[in-house]
Amino acid sequence: MDKDTQTLSNIYRYAVVAGLYPTNPVRSGRPRYQTAEKIRHSRERSPKDADNCHRICDVLLSRVEQETVGWFGLFAMFTGCRLSELLRLRTDAQDDTQPGYIQWRRDRPIATPAAAPVTALGLLHIRRSKGGLNPECLIGPEFAEMLETFHRWHQARFPASPWYFPNLAGACIHRRQIYEHIVAAAAELHLHRITPHGFRSFYVTKRRSDGASDTVIASEIGDKTVALMQTTYGERPKNWLGGAAIGWVPTDGKPAWENWQAKHKASHPIDSGSQRASGSSSESSMFTVPPVWRNGRRTGLKNNPQPPPEKPTVASQDFTEDYQI
Description:
2 domains, single chain, hpI Integrase, Chain A, three-stranded antiparallel beta sheet
């Protein structure tokens, strides 16, 4: 109801500005149906650290019917994107105007804010919701490692689906399924209530710990104003000097994607040095980190730009396919 009355107020306001109506009768004094005490911001639904993020994703990735939601959680953690923004991603994206297209760093560095340098190996192109800015997300070393394992999973489970996050039928998963599974996984682990949007708040906290300013972070997550950062994600403590940066990977145990990989590698060994049954060489795709960045943590860049990435092809559903992890 509050949203409806706000929409009505916006219509009246436009009419006043356009000279079509004398005043806005619902500008002030209208009833409020949602009290401030009942409002919950995303900072209250956020994982407190990377360990909790990975624990939730571990639970989801351990169940075939919930694997998609587990990968969604990892993407949300690395990008700080809204749920709607991630659900637009497609594996058949052809260029940087289409959500889901991955652009790898090749013969020159990708520009990053000088105030908070990031080892950027590439960009994940998206389409922002709510008129957001900067339709791309930086891909760091850990994110790049996760992307390759995600690609292997996607080709094994949903080779014909163009969606990053398909349901069991191959169509794009419904946002309600993601919400319910993440909330349930957190409850199963006896954590406080955590929602998909809480991962966006974790991204803000993590980047603050890197020493990034709220202006830089707002730009990274597509927010237009810094004021929204403080009201939604909380104010930066005045005496906070950063301290030890929060990591993307858990301090206790392996990342969720490595646990998934180890589980399936044990039951379906991968020979990354052999050729595929068809006789073709090791597969290259949009998700594959260029060879110059294979170790993921180099600070230099050889002067040998790689050819443009190929469009992902439909692969065998057998986990024994040759895919370099």
